[in-house]
Design goal:
The chain contains seven helices and six strands; from the N terminus they run E-H-E-H-H-E-E-E-E-H-H-H-H.
């Protein structure tokens, strides 16, 4: 879990705290912490109180967005830090169109994974 810089913070349109995510997923906060620990979600410390938060686009329809965990694994395997993954996921890609995070949220994970794999080459 890293502290986020202002540039990346500005890329992410909305954030959720771990208790908010637990509520949306209908699980305990400890389960959300486990998802972060396992690398299925990225949590960063933000705001005055440095509260752990996760991008809201990572959660949809009562579950973690399909394809997110696999994409994060690919990026991590490519040597990306949490901040670099957030920057990549929330930077507009004209070939998608939109951001990779939006594409995942819209169930276009195959396209996103293809681009993530291409980064390794």
């Amino acid at each position: 879990m890293t502290e986020i810089d202002a540039k990346i913070d500005a890329l992410v349109p909305a954030w959720l705290t771990l208790p908010d995510i637990a509520e949306r997923l209908s699980v305990e906060v400890t389960r959300v912490r486990q998802l972060v620990k396992e690398g299925q979600l990225i949590a960063v410390r933000r705001g005055e109180n440095r509260v752990l938060q996760v991008p809201a686009e990572f959660i949809g329809d009562g579950k973690v967005v399909k394809g997110l965990a696999g994409t994060l694994t690919l990026l991590r395997d490519d040597g990306f830090s949490d901040e670099e993954m957030l920057e990549w996921l929330f930077t507009p890609d004209p070939s998608l169109p939109g951001t990779p995070a939006q594409a995942l949220h819209e169930n276009r994970g195959t396209e996103v994974k293809r681009r993530a794999q291409a980064l390794a080459v």
